[in-house]
Design goal:
Structural class: alpha/beta
CATH superfamily of the largest domain: Aldolase class I
Strand order of the largest sheet: 10-17-16-15-14-13-12-11
Radius of gyration: 20 Å
Bound molecules: D-xylitol-5-phosphate, zinc ion
Distance between the termini: 31 Å
Helix content: 25-40%
Shape: globular
Length: 370
């Protein structure tokens, strides 16, 4: 877990330097904790380096992010023309590591997570079309070609696959598949058999996922009286803890307990609950989760009325707290994702659409680019 610009950020690890690495380090020894980018770095070094580099990014608009996996530096990603919300990117993967399958994909997806924490909303990649491997890599990570033949990644869209639909006998395999994918979040559905007519799993499964996952952990509590457990779910590794408006006696207490435990707080509303009921808490809420099916089971059909609720919620959020994001959950697939993102949703949860697909990784990209 690292912090970039004051935001918690789950990155495997990222270090950065300017394009001319040695020159920059000679100029400013404070920015030079490493002498050889091929050397493995410790987490402490990485965190120090990120802290130092924030100033560098703001000052010159250029950044090289070094990506390390499994204790080895495997490549670098350059940001050019960073203007606060968009940037051009270049990727360099150290040749000897290219042979390790999946590394380039994971490196680029790690970079996207870092770019998001710098508030970059749109990435542009210039790709040599003759290099099929490079083109395929960027497409796998959610980039699509625009009319100017540039590859664009819209960072405002996030897919959160729900592990409720994963294969629990192979949870580590499925979590690692998500690590390699263009999904930046993992959605964790906790059900108590009382608030909803189904029981899913609790802390041991959440901990097993957080141990392996490099993504943002988005825990959705479908439980009665959530105040009893929100702190524990936050401390078990959730980046976001979302509880149900309908299940909580004291909404303020739940939000405060989640924040005090170091996580972001989300409030969810069932299909029959109107978003206006949340107005008085929006100023201190990080996310609103609009249920587009009755909570309890994966694989149900999307309720179109939820889009009307999203639009009304969006208007309220813009007025009260533009930092609050909107997530939607239930019945999302590549066939309705465009409409859903268009209505103002930031994060879509997708369970069966992803895990029942022949290629979950391709399906995630299809949803992102719908
Ligand atoms: C439903 C859960 C959802 C569910 C979504 O109660 O909250 O997260 O897993 O599954 P799909 O995408 O299959 O509707
Ligand atoms: Zn959910």
């Amino acid at each position: 877990m690292v912090e970039l610009q004051g935001k918690r950020c789950r990155l495997r690890s990222v270090v950065s330097s300017d394009v001319d690495t040695t020159l920059l380090w000679e100029n400013d020894p404070a920015l030079a904790p490493f002498s050889d980018p091929h050397e493995p770095y410790t987490r402490e070094q990485i965190e120090v380096f990120i802290a130092n580099q924030q100033a560098g990014l703001a000052a010159n608009g250029q950044l090289r992010l070094m990506i390390e996996l499994d204790g080895r530096a495997i490549g670098a990603l350059d940001i050019f023309d960073y203007d606060g919300s968009s940037a051009e990117v270049g990727i360099l993967i150290y040749e000897q590591q290219m042979r390790r399958k999946g590394y380039a994909t994971e490196a680029l997806n790690t970079f996207k997570a870092a770019a998001r924490s710098f508030n970059i909303e749109r990435l542009t990649a210039v790709i040599n079309e003759d290099n099929e491997a490079s083109r395929a890599l960027f497409c796998r990570c959610g980039f699509t070609k625009d009319s100017n033949n540039k590859y664009i990644c819209n960072m405002k869209r996030v897919v959160a696959p729900s592990i409720l639909s994963a294969d629990f006998g192979n949870l580590e395999r499925d979590t690692q598949m998500l690590n390699r994918s263009a999904a930046e979040w993992v959605h964790v559905d906790v059900m108590d058999g009382v608030f909803v007519p189904n029981i899913s799993f609790g802390f041991p499964v959440l901990k097993a996922v957080t141990k392996v996952s490099t993504k943002v952990i988005d825990t959705h509590l479908m439980i009665c009286d959530p105040i009893r457990y929100v702190e524990q779910f936050a401390k078990a590794g959730s980046d976001y803890v979302t509880f149900h408006y309908e299940a909580a006696a004291d909404i303020d207490a739940c939000i405060d307990a989640i924040h005090n435990a170091g996580a972001k707080a989300g409030i969810s509303i069932k299909p029959a609950t109107e978003p206006e009921v949340l107005e008085q808490w929006l100023h201190k809420t990080d996310m609103v989760l609009v249920m587009s099916v009755e909570p309890g089971f994966g694989g149900q059909s999307f309720m179109p009325y939820s889009l009307d609720k999203v639009r009304r919620l969006k208007t309220m959020i813009e007025r009260i707290n533009p930092n609050c994001i909107i997530e939607i959950d239930g019945g999302i697939s590549a066939s309705n994702a465009a409409e859903v993102f268009g209505a103002g949703v930031d994060v879509v949860v997708a369970g069966s659409a992803v895990f029942c697909a022949e290629s979950p990784e391709d399906e995630i990209v299809k949803i992102l680019n719908a």
